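Continuing the batch. This is chain 6 of the set; chains 1 through 5 are on the previous pages. Same settings as before, nothing changed between runs. Recording input and output for traceability.
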Amino acid sequence: LNVLAAVMGKPYHKIFFEFQGGNTQGGDDYGSGDVKYHLGASSDREFDGHKVHLSLTANPSHLEIVNPVVLGKARAKQFFDEVEAGATRATDPKERNKRRTKVMPLLLHGDAAFAGQGVVAECFALSGLAGYRTGGAVHFIVNNQIGFTTAPSFSRSSPYPSDMAKMVDAPVFHVNGDDPEAVVYAAKVATEYRQEFGKDVVIDMFCYRRFGHNEGDDPTMTQPMMYAKIREQSSTREIYSRRLVEEGVMSDDAVNNMVAEMDAHLDAEFEKAKTFKSGAADWLDGKWAGLGLPKDDEGRGKTGVAAAKLKDLGKKITTVPEGFNIHKTVARTVDARRKMATSGENLDWGMAEHMAFATLLEEGFPIRLSGQDSCRGTFTQRHSHFVDQSTEERYTPLNNLSDTQAHYEVIDSLLSEEAVLGYEYGYSLTAPQTLTMWEAQFGDFANGAQVLFDQFISSGERKWLRMSGLVCLLPHGYEGQGPEHSSARLERFLQMCAQDNMQVVYPTTPANYFHALRRQVHRDFRKPLIVMTPKSLLRHKRAVSFFKDMGPSTSFHRILHDGAEVPECKAEVTLKADKDIRRVVMCSGKVYYDLFEEREKRKADDVYLLRIEQLYPFPVAPLMKELARFPNADMVWCQEEPRNMGAWTFVDWNIEKTLEKLDTKAKRPRYVGRPASASTAAGTMTLHNKELAAFLEAAFEK
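Output for chain 6:
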């Protein structure tokens, strides 16, 4: 609250209004709000004739988790400052670092949290990495020598809370919080260090907490001796005012008058709060101008691209510079992609992604993708860089499309989920016209960043009126690799879905993935996008698309028809008429191809396979349209995940409500899939195959 009032310049009457239960954010009819000390703010203030824009990031009570979000916001602001200043990829790195001094991340910490929360160490680990540098952050530790009720001897193993910063040799300034002038001096020197050297710096301010952890807490229950001394200690204001009087800077009367004036001002502001009325929300201004809330159910955006443009870009991204010694395996991949671009046929997942990226870059949308092994791709599917086998020189085709294209930044992150995802979320808050993406090495590891999904990505828009268009790519699919390499925990993301807060898709075709990425920036609103991405489908012979699926009249399909109805799929089974279909098997993701191939073996021409490509927002209207075709069929939901996981508990109710509106024999879906399990997946291929055979049998049995 002191930061809001004294630093950000938030009027006291607005803070008092919030204490009385009011909402100063605006958007009462949309946002759910948050407690007053979680809210962000921004302001423009003037110091010594210089205008400074201040931005306080909204944050939850999960200690220190906002740190990477702030760093990501700072990096985005720095990037766009560079662009406006005319910086290019050829600009000298030292010159680019100098330009970063215009934006400074300032992180406030508690002593116990700084020492205790692992995300602090992760952020220090980020500080010197090329993809995450911000020119240094200033860390300010409010060291009140206690963590709620826990003494320092129980909350850290080192003498100082700031010892964590030694991992990057950051200088630390220890300063007495009862000496305001010393604190100001330490802050000045720390800031000068950051501006000169572009590295992190720490201020450790020794002070104390005069009262309890909150208004109702009694700290004497656990620290009686400490609080006996605190009661005897003069306040910082009393100590400093006494010093000013002794030094002849101010008189006692002047001090008393200043205190009285402040008290009177607070009283007046308190009265003003009683009649204060909050104005409209201003959350869609600045870089967010022109964006708003979704106006229709579909929200497709114009994502199709002319075949000639796709062919031209396909040629560019498969061109290897003359004399470049490319790896033979990568060369085969590039040759295969060149054939795809020439023919416009059989595009695999990696090629479709490259086409989405290339078209967006040509249209002026920057792309930032970071994650573990994201440059090459965990599954050797991306190859964003070609690496010369003699010199290790890197060539990035997506940054060599044209002189006017936007910048493509792909980063192999450090082995962290939490800090890196927080960083990319922060980046997305500042860059609505950038396709910002975070990729998990395997979706199973995304829960290492669960706090970000819970507190920011799924709820930030409603709590704080802050949109994000962040894309999360989570490799998911059961291929017998065991419980650590099979599941992105789809069920957990669906459990978080409500109030149109984000999108969850599980596409089965490269073209639908292409459109899902492009629509993120081609719509007039922004929502986080959770994508269950493939592993085995990356090279599956049937998981291919054509330029015609990406053409001008095409867009993302929330529901996809049975491949047996599409000539390019070359299915051996010819389906019966709709009225004679015995069973409709609804599914999402990779299991569709298992079902398709099983049907081919069985020649089951009376079973229709319907893919739900977007699970949230749930596509009620298109699903109704499709299911109405099959009045006599029984309805099945099939998934490869265990019954207590996957999409079942989410789609069950949604499909039932859809069927209630139709004149069909079936009124609710029946479950087919793996039985409920404590572990996400079987640990052996033998058991995996046994489970797969069992639920495929159940899907087709008569």
